[in-house]
Structure formats: C-alpha cells, structure tokens
Amino acid sequence: MIERICPKCRVPMNGDKCIKPNCGCATKMSSTIYWCDDCNVPIFENICPSCGNKGRYIATDMRPVFPEENVLISLILGDNPQKYQESSVWFGSGMYIIDGKKVRLSITKLNSLPLDKIHKLKEKYEAFVTKINYCFFDEYIRKFIKANADRYNFITEEAVQFVQKYREKYAIEDMMVSFSGGKDSTVTSHIVNRALGTNKVLHIFGDTTLEFPYTLEYKKRFKKNEESRGVRVLTAKNREKNFEDLCDIVGPPSRVTVDGFSSEDIGIILDEDFDIAVRTGYHCAPYIHKYLKDETQLGTVRVGIGQFNTKKEIDLFVKAIEEIVYE
Is pTM, for the whole model, over 0.90? Predict the structure, then answer.
C-alpha cells in the first residue's frame, strides 16, 4: 500500500507524527509491504487477495532471495546449505525475511571473518550449489504472483500509458532504451515494446568495464528471447579508459539526499512538479546505505545522466533541488 510511515520506527502511522513513546518523528508517504502468514508470501495490500486473511506490516520494499543466495545465508546462519531451501525467503528494509520472520545479518561481523573461514564457506557453497532444487522457490513465486496480480496489472498499465504519451512526440527511430542487462532495464524493455507495439526501439548497452561475466552472458540470451528477438542492442564502450579512471576525471555517479525528506519524497516532487525522472531507494545495494548513513532517508536519489542530456537539463535539476531545499 501507499501510506504514511515513521522513517525511524519503520511502522505505518495514521497521522503526521509517530505516536510511539519517545519518538514523535514526522511521518512520510511510502510504500508498505505486508506478510500473509497463511500464504507465507509478501502482499501489497493489508488484506491478502488470495486467502482473504489480514496481513501484518513487514517492510517498505521487498525482493525475492533466489536459491543460490539462499544457500549462502543458510551457510552463514546455520552452517547447513539446506537450512532455508524449503522456506519463503525475501529481503526487505535492510534485512532478510524468512517465513515471515526478520533476520539480521551483521555486515560488520561478516567483514571481520578471517580468510580461512571465508574459503571454507566458499568451498561448502560450491559443493552444494549444483544440487539446488528450484521447486520450493518456484512455488512461493507462484503464490506471490497470484496474491499481487491486481497490483502488478495496475502498475503495468500505468507504465504502458506513460510511455504511450511520447508516441506522438517522437519517432520510433529517435527513441532508445538504456539497457544494463539487469532486471530493471529488462522490465523497461518489455514495457516499451508493449506500449509502442514494436521491438524496433534501439537498446543501448553501456559497458562500464565493470560488468560481471553473467551480465554479458545475459545480454546475449536477451537477444535470443522470443519477446526480444529482433531488438537491436548497441554496445557503447569506452575502450580507452575504464570506469575507475573516468571517475577520477569526471567524478562518480551522482547521488543526492536532502535532510527532512525521504528519497521517495524527492523522487515524487521531481516527477510531479518538475517533470524530472530519477531513481530512488537502495539501488540493489542495501548494505552500502548503512555505511553511507542515509537509511533515515530510505536511500538516495540517483541521477542518471545520459549521452543525450544537455547542460541546460542538468542546470534545471540543480535548480529544482535548490527549490526543494530552500522553499
């Protein structure tokens, strides 16, 4: 659901301030995820559409934990690679959620593990990973999809309609999809193809020189998928400098936080008031935000400046942030 939440206590509230003793923090609008104990999966609404039971608040964001990662946390938490293989395992709001129970992994503790311990974990992982059975994971994903079908259909239609607004403004040959080989750009590709009724929109894969081999392998598989077959993927790569060298010259990718605002708040204001699209949240790297100490802002605002952005657009973004901060 979209409702008010206390960014400090991380629980939904009805009013403008948290009513918990010794808190009183101003609440923020945020997405809230609930847990259905009967179906044993996360749900977007507080009443499970599948079984009708009332859910309980669990997190503000959620992603599935695939069996390979499941093996790793099973080894870390229980020294048994099969410990959670039959469980419903997810990750949300900076912690693992196993069969509806929150489980924290101490990053400080993990970082302090001696190398011999890490090598032993790696050996156990590699010995078991080829024996992984996806049947339990697939079953929970089926339950999750069924329980959240209405929400999925709503946001899909919303995204399709958004893309369709630009069909009359730009020719197909003037459009492009920034394709990173990850889940977000794969979904974007699907939405664009569906909204425009064609797979002729150019996809540009930016090779930062930091890509994992699996990412490059997926890019090849993507081009062979039935839906994406025929999509033209152009690889853009700087063959003279690697990513770290470029960061020394032009600086790292931009991220923004504003005191008193969650990253989601800033993203909504930029979208609705300034027509500027950014990405907000933990950016698939929740643990780094503990180090950056921006968890109270629910992550950061990430500014994706591309090859077609102009200096004027960058100046407009800076001015928008200034208005949000000072007004």
Answer: no
**CA 101 vs CA 40, 72, 163, 189: distances in Å:** 10, 18, 38, 35
33, pLDDT greater than 60: yes
Pair 220, 192: CB distance under 8 Å: no
CA distance 82 to 99: 15
Q: What are the helix (H) ranges across the chain? A: 67-78, 107-111, 115-128, 135-147, 149-164, 183-196, 213-224, 243-250, 263-274, 288-292, 311-326
- Residue 307, pLDDT > 70, answer no
Please write the tens of the pLDDT for every residue from 132-171.
Answer: 999 999 999 999 999 999 999 999 999 999 999 988 888 9
Are 42 and 49 in contact, with CB atoms under 8 Å apart?
no
Residue 97's nearest CA partner among 27, 43, 18, 20 is 43
Give the burial class of 59: count Cβ atoms within 10 A of its Cβ; 0-12 exposed, 13-18 middle, 19 or more buried: buried
pLDDT tens string 77-88: 988 999 999 999
Residues 42, 35 contacting (CB under 8 angstroms): yes
Pairing of strands 176-179, 41-43: unpaired
In this predicted structure, the answer to whether residue 67 has a pLDDT above a threshold of 80 is yes
- Report the 10 Å Cβ neighbour count for 14: 8
Neighbouring C-alpha atoms within 13 Å toward the C-beta of 99: 6
Helix (H, G, I), strand (E, B) or coil at 34: strand
- Residue 112 or 290, more confident: 112
Residue with tokens 């979904």: 187
Dmax (CA) for the chain in angstroms is 60
